[in-house]
Amino acid sequence: MATDFTPPTTEEPGMPGSEADLQPKPEWQPRYPGSGRLKDKVAIVTGADSGIGRAVAALFAREGADVAILYLDEHEDAAETKRIVEAEGRRALTVAGDVGDKSWCDDAVAKVIAEFGKLDVLVNNAGEQHPDKDITDITEQQLRRTFQTNIFGMFFMVQAARPHLKSGAAIVNCTSITMYQGAAILLDYSSTKGAITAFTRSLSESLVKDGIRVNGVAPGPIWTPLNPSGGQPKENIPDFGKDTPMGRPGQPNEVAPAFLFLACEDASYISGQVIHPNGGTVVNG
């Protein structure tokens, strides 16, 4: 681990949150039969133990992919995601660790290659957020930690994966509606999401000549363990997502199809773009 590695903050001790303990349960189940759109592909999904990551892993498996489930430390949730992937008849590998640690990212990708022999799709989904009412409340540790996880981690994962990605491969990064709208209590988080969008567009320009597509997904408010475990103030949870045009938060299985579309050949002429599953909020970009 690098000497400048920033450890997790203690301000929200419940993070990243357990899906096993969450009520009501997020909806991760794929909504339709598979059609082989990722047949015999190998995908890495970071943050795949719960929430959007679990839904993506489940849908990718339904569509024929073997899935490497990368996650921080929610072992029970990760084991359940592994069970879900294997129930679809696909192979699964769980690897626990911190995407903000470059050496761990290198080791994780090496384990995936050793297990599956190749890599076709990288989904950079892992992230963290810490609400603060004023910019002066954001500690240096929190600021460094949020950037380390949310954007440094994507750089590290792509750097580790790049030697194994061949023409036809796809990278899908998770940005956020906060990049487009802003979020008063999520200054550092929103800033990282802006960086992720710029990273996605620039990486697309860098890799498109090699036949590797890079796109992003910018979810709105989605019901996952992240928000009730400290990602939002407790008093905001009862009305979470009600300010969207649809009047409700989204479910992980309403976001996962955007990742699938961008990962498979349906999106063969799309790169450098962002899809917005956000409950109907109109944003520019």
What is the fold's blueprint, element by element?
Elements: E1 42-46, H1 51-62, E2 66-71, H2 75-87, E3 92-96, H3 102-116, E4 121-124, H4 140-161, E5 170-174, H5 178-181, H6 187-207, E6 213-217, H7 227-231, H8 252-263, E7 274-275
Parallel strand pairs: 1-2, 1-4, 2-3, 4-5, 5-6, 6-7
Helix pairs in contact: 1-2, 1-8, 3-4, 4-6
Family: Belongs to the short-chain dehydrogenases/reductases (SDR) family.
Biased composition (Low complexity): 1-13
Keywords: Oxidoreductase
Report a brief summary of the structure:
With 285 residues, the chain is of the alpha/beta class. It contains 8 helices and 7 strands. Helix 1 (51-62) packs parallel to helix 2.
Keywords:
285 residues; single chain; 7 strands; 8 helices; 11% strand; 36% helix; Rossmann fold; seven-stranded parallel β-sheet; alpha/beta; globular
- Please trace the helix and strand order, writing H or E for each element: EHEHEHEHEHHEHHE
Strand content: 5-15%
What would the average pLDDT be, to the nearest integer? Answer: 95
The biggest sheet amounts to: 7 strands, parallel
According to CATH, what is the topology? Answer: Rossmann fold
Q: How many structural units, i.e. domains?
A: 1
Question: Helical residue percent?
Answer: 25-40%
State the end-to-end distance.
37 Å
DSSP strand count: 7
Overall 3D form = globular
Structural class label: alpha/beta
Q: What is the CATH C-level name?
A: Alpha Beta
CATH superfamily: NAD(P)-binding Rossmann-like Domain
Q: What would you report as the Rg, rounded to the nearest angstrom?
A: 17 Å
The unreliable regions are: none
CATH architecture classification name: 3-Layer(aba) Sandwich
The number of distinct helices, counting runs of at least 4 residues, comes to: 8
Strand order of the largest sheet: 3-2-1-4-5-6-7
Keywords: Oxidoreductase
Organism: Sphingomonas jejuensis
Family: Belongs to the short-chain dehydrogenases/reductases (SDR) family.
Protein name: NAD(P)-dependent dehydrogenase (Short-subunit alcohol dehydrogenase family)
